[in-house]
């Protein structure tokens, strides 16, 4: 029996949008196992870009650990005087964000292009 997962639980892709903006696209599942990877990725982007957009449209699952990462990333962005935008048209993630009330504390845009336009 192998201890390796056949498919990664979460995939993160980072794209540059000029010198001051990055887009982090998240697909798969963000849970207690994968949340630290997402946190590290967002933190790294906030260290080098003035605007960071996190696209959550590809999520299949978002746990409380994932919600905590989003909240803490937002706090980090505020501390670093950066703009952090989220794009989330995913029913699973939206349910978690609405149920916890976290949606009202984060900045959301309808799509990546709108978020980039708002942030720059």
Would you kindly provide a written description of the structure presented here, covering whatever features stand out?
The chain has 120 residues and is of the alpha/beta class. It has a single domain (10-119), classed as STAS domain (Transcription Regulator spoIIAA). The chain contains four helices and five strands. A five-stranded mixed beta sheet has the order 1-2-3-4-5. A hairpin with a 4-residue loop joins strand 1 (10-16) and strand 2 (21-30). The termini are far apart. The model has no long low-confidence stretch (mean pLDDT 92).
Set down the secondary structure blueprint.
Blueprint (H helix, E strand, L loop, with lengths): L9 E7 L4 E10 L4 H14 L2 E12 L1 H16 L3 E5 L3 H10 L7 E2 L2 H8 L1
Could you name the key traits of this structure?
120 residues, alpha/beta, Transcription Regulator spoIIAA, 5-stranded mixed sheet, 4 helices, globular
């Amino acid at each position: 029996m192998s201890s390796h997962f056949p498919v990664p639980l979460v995939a993160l892709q980072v794209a540059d949008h000029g010198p001051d903006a990055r887009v982090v696209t998240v697909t798969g599942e963000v849970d207690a196992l994968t949340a630290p990877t997402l946190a590290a990725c967002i933190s790294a982007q906030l260290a080098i870009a003035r605007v960071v957009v996190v696209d959550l449209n590809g999520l299949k699952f978002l746990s409380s650990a994932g919600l905590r990462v989003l909240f803490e990333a937002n706090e980090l962005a505020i501390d670093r005087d950066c703009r952090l935008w989220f794009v989330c048209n995913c029913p699973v993630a939206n349910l978690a964000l609405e149920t916890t009330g976290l949606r009202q504390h984060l900045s959301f845009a309808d799509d990546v292009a709108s978020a980039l336009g708002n942030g720059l």
